[in-house]
Amino acid sequence: MSIPPRSGPLTGLRLIELGQLIAGPFCGQIFADMGADVIKIEPPGQGDPLREWGREGFPLWWSVVARGKRCITANLREAEGQDLVRRLVAEADFLVENFRPGTLEKWGLGYDALKAVNPRLIMVRVSGYGQTGPYATRAGYASVGEAMGGLRYVMGEPDRVPSRAGISLGDSLAGLHAALGALAALHHREKTGEGQVIDATIYESVLSVMEGLIPEYQIEGYTRGRTGSFLPGIAPSNIYPGSDGMVVIAANQDTVFARLCDAMGQPGLKDHPEYLTHTLRGQNQASLDALIGEWSRARTIDEIERLMIENGVPVGKVYRAADMMTDPHFAARETIIEVPSERWPGIRQQNVFPKFSATPGQVRWAGPDTLGSHTEEVLTELLNLTPDQIAKLRASGIV
What we know:
Blueprint: E1 14-17, H1 23-33, E2 37-42, H2 61-65, E3 70-73, H3 79-89, E4 94-97, H4 103-106, H5 111-117, E5 122-127, H6 142-148, H7 169-192, E6 196-201, H8 202-207, H9 213-220, E7 237-242, E8 245-250, H10 254-263, H11 278-283, H12 285-297, H13 301-310, E9 315-317, H14 321-326, H15 328-332, E10 336-338, E11 348-350, H16 375-383, H17 387-395
Helix pairs in contact: 1-7
């Protein structure tokens, strides 16, 4: 399988990844997509549990989160494995990890120890609750962080227990904020030569996208709750039924609402006393949504989209994967691309985002299928170990 050379805005940088599952590795995925040399370290004989996640026989998630990375094995519980990490860190710009706080310190791989090896190192630490505070040592998964950060309480229908997104959103938000923090620290290092620690938590990453949740409670005494598919007072903006699917229509602005009325063939609706202003439309949200739903239910999604687009009303089908694979806009922007893969020839994945005009990133390949695929390559290239030395490390279970 031919793998293209690295390219992208982070080409020339190196990141050591010690994390597993999602939050830390998603940060590493972003760096690999942007051209960095990402070296993922997994435990020998075991590997990242994500290698096995997915429907039986189809652990496809691994092919996304491991893409573009070089994967080696090292037993971090043993002194020789820890020494390999220190030697790799000496040649690295970043290290990302998402173990429970205190774990790396127990292994002699805390920031102070690694800073002694490489003062320019930017250490990215992703956890449920952070490196400080009374909850720091608790085990923290995305589901708990989403609850603590306020997201779970506002998700779902008001007449039942909170729902969840169909993805591990808290993990991905933490990985994204970790990458943002690492790049901000890189800018600081370029000016000062100093590395530092990035402390990224799941719960705070979730809280950061919760809009006005805190001041709304503090100033108004208002607690956001579950409202299903709409936001109270923002109307019309909801999911509406078509005869062959569902569609989002967002016309919660005076001029746009007027255009929606024209698109529906009911221009007089904009002068209805219950819908004259944004405030009135919010107060009469239920009746307005029912009226629009009655109109949309008699039409196909294609017809609804055509009428909305012709009248300048924001509209969109509620997409599933099949819709994305055939959409002309996705195709024109190469939003989904075919990626080289050992195990899944022709596999298609989401492309690198955001797009760069001068230094675009790329998905070089869908990650190594075999545990420790690059152990020999990395230890030889970066640490100058001989085949005999690597063989001894293998025999002793260090790699």
